[in-house]
Structure formats: structure tokens, C-alpha cells
Amino acid sequence: MSTDSLALIGELLDPTALALVCGGTVLAVVLRSPLGELTRAVGALRTLGRSRFDAEPLLHQITALDRIAKRHGALALDRSVITDPDVKAGIAAIVDGAGGDAVQTLIDHRRRARVERHLAIADIWSGAADVAPAMGMVGTLIGLARMFATMSDPSAIGGAMAIALLATLYGALIANLVAAPIAHRLRTNARAEAFERARIVAPLVALANREVPRAPVIPQPLASVA
Prior knowledge:
By secondary structure, the protein is mainly α. The protein has one domain (13-42, 56-211). Helices cover 75% and strands 0% of the residues. Helix 2 (15-32) packs antiparallel against helix 6 and helix 4 (56-72) packs parallel to helix 8.
């Protein structure tokens, strides 16, 4: 990197303006969001580099579990190692004797709850994208107020004007290059996972319908002919 580039970067860095924008954005997000969702929002950054969720391995596992149930019965599934929480909950319900409708309701509820959690996390980052430009304007106003307060000292005007201009720049960059892209990526991943997880419902329901005990059919006596 050339000396001119380093000098330009140094000119565009102002700790005071950066602290105003970043600190104000973080404070606004913290005040409007529950602590648990904030923790998950930060943890969600680890998932941005992963590939999208694919239900194919889960479908293969359900097929293998189906073969086990055919050979040894549904109770044998209780000893299987299942890492996915939705499949694990569905198999546990089948082992307990739940029917297909109950298993479908369970899996659908868990899928919708997961989507809501993911969208709540995306909303936190979207909120940060909305707040950051406003915090940039706050920094601009503070810089202008400082500049007007130091008009008698020409050496202080430049620093105050730098805060005023760079605060707006930082707000726009944080909103459009950091927070908004993260929110969009999280929403896209949430929709893709919800679509993929819908694929595991049918095989689990089919397994439940086959394994659930059916009540015996009691023949009804024929009505007497008058």
C-alpha cells in the first residue's frame, strides 16, 4: 500500500466521530432489543460464511431410521443418535406413539418458531442499519456545534468540521456496507432453511402413520330386519 493511500486512510479516520456513530448505534440497538436476541445476533455472524442449509442428509437419516423401525419396531429408534433437533423431536414423538397429524403439527411448529427466531435476529441488524445514519447526523450536529463554539480558535475549527463530515460518512458506511448486508443475508438463509426443513415433514409423518398403533375395528351387529 502506497504512502498516499495510507495518508488518505489516516485522514478519513476520526476516533471521536467513529465513537459517536458506533457507540450511538450499539446503544440504540441494545435499548430496543432483548438481551437474548442480542447475544444470538452476535453469534449469527459465525453462520454467514457457511453454505445454505440442505435437508438431504436429514432425509437420508430418516430413511435409515425407517428401515430400523421396519426391522425392530419404533422403540428401537429411541437408541439412535440424532443430532438435528427437529428430527430428534419427531422421532421421540413417534416412539411415544404419536400419530402422523401430531408429528406434522410438532415439526411445523418447530420450523415456524425457528424462522421467527432467525427473522428476529435479522431485524436487529436491520434496526442497526436504520439507526446508523441517524447517529451519523447526531455526530454531524455535535461537530457543527463544536465548530461554532470554537470560532474564535481557528486551529480547532478543522477538527470539529472533520467530526461533522466523517460522522455522516461513518453512518452511511455502517448502514449500507455492514448492517444491511448482514440482515439481508440472514433473512435469505432463514427462508432457505425453512423451505428445506419442510421436506422432512412428509417422511416423518409417513413413518408415524405406519408405526402408530391402530385401534382394532369392532364389527357392528347387523340391524334386525323388521
